[in-house]
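Student: I would love a firmer grasp of how sequence relates to backbone shape in proteins. I am handing you a single protein, as its sequence and its fold in token form. I am told such tokens are a discrete way to write the fold. I hope you can help me see how the letters and the tokens relate. Take your time, and here it is.
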Amino acid sequence: MRNLHFEKLLPYMDQFLKGFGVTIQVTVVSFAIAIVLAITLAAVRMTNIKPLVILHDVWVLIIRSMPLLLQLFLMAYAVPALTGGKINLGAVLSGEAVLAINASAYMTESIRGGFLGVDRGQKEAAQALGTGNTVSFFYIILPQAFRHIFPSLMNEIILQFKSTSLLAQIGVYELFLVSNNMTTATHASFEPFLLVAVIYYIVVMVLTYCSQKIEGRLRRSDKN
């Protein structure tokens, strides 16, 4: 049985921390952008303007039909090549953009369902009070819709966090690429990947725990 030598990784802990920081940054930035895009797409889908609805459906279908890794390669390599280098976001921004676009295509239906789940009487009451559409949306509809879509949002941010490992394929110095590089630097075949697996596990468990706590508070507030 082969012995594990995690002590070989100690001189490179700063690299793991750097990779972890990039992973968290990409997760947070891409998820924030994804929410904005998904809300926009959901609003478009809820309009009665047929051309916009068709464009929405086609766009979502295209994004959902392509593997995420293929989208990353297209954004990182195909777009700069086709534009003669005029559009070149770099590895990190390309990764954040693709993760955001991909996630928004899946989140849009959940968000639309959350909007539709808000009692119509709430909207009518806001209109009767003379509340503008913008104020009504941000202060009445969105907070109530958030309660309905929160579980799916937490699932999405966990998926977003794990999907950052694919960015190693376009040269983003995140956790998976760090572990891959460390196998060469330390001649340790398994230890870097095991360490990264533990990091992923801990972060997912923390997010899951926080999600359950917040969901519990939201349910109790609904009862009150």
Notes: The chain has a mean pLDDT of 87. The domain at 6-223 is CATH 1.10.3720.10 (MetI-like fold). The radius of gyration is 21 Å.
